[in-house]
Amino acid sequence: MQNILVTGGAGFIGSNFVQHVVACTDMHVTVLDKLTYAATRESLDELPQSRVSLVVGDIASEPEVDRLVAEADAVVHFAAESHNDNSLHDPSPFIRTNLVGTFVLLEAARRHGVRFHHVSTDEVYGDLELDDPTRFTEATPYQPSSPYSASKAGSDHLVRAWVRSFGVQATISNCSNNYGPWQHIEKFIPRQITEVIEGRRPRLYGDGLNVRDWIHTRDHSSAVLAILERGRIGETYLIGADGERSNLDVVRAILRTLGRSEDDIEYVTDRAGHDRRYAIDSTKLRTELGWMPEFSDFDKGLADTVAWYQEHLDWWRPAKSATEAAYALKGQ
Fold this sequence. Notes:
- The chain has eleven helices and twelve strands.
- It has a domain at about 5-180 and about 215-240: Rossmann fold (3-Layer(aba) Sandwich), CATH 3.40.50.
- About 45% of the residues lie in helices and about 15% in strands.
């Protein structure tokens, strides 16, 4: 593969993947990104223009997608509407981007015989009980609980159908919650970090005991590249780094890192349909492809992330007031 098309490559997870590809391979990357509020040109600015091209466009636009896919050896599909709270307020963008956009990309990949990798989420599996030792595997039944996770579940099913019905050369990965640089401050970890940096109390939904399985976005990137290069066509791989932490534990770790009392927390009304626990079993990925995470120490990865937000105040502060105003309208 010499040329890959990365959809959503100016967003948080996508841009970190583009940076990883440039650092670890000789491939040229074309980024297709709509540049919504959650994407940023700055995340790509330091990459050489000879290696990365940015096309501002919509994955649901058939002519543009067809042209770009025809020029690529592979498509890595990150582009998605991904904020659960927003999907509860207005599901329509999630249906257009996550379902219609994936359909348009799959059809282009089918026409041009291009390798396709679809990036998805563990939220398609629903949630687990807090005292249940079970973790999600590739065989776990789908049970989405929000418009966001339902739209991602639907896109996963489209990919599998196009593999079986039309022979599209595709793989799927379902990943646990990412953290790291360039993540929009509406998301859980950067929101809490920036609140504490600005001297306010971080807010927690409900009792704060909801558990997420955290993975540094650099580890997600290395896993996706391994699947793209060595994954078996038609297979699904779960990506996780054994980073289970309650939301309360994460916030306390952020407070500690920034020199504040661990109990300096404000609790707010829980979110509708708030899943209790996610946990990933990535045994298949590790045994078949030999992948291992770099950031096996969550506290170290979190400290690196806190430092990044401290060093990039000019990037996130312009969006902070509007983000918090939107949360305030919802009492969060």
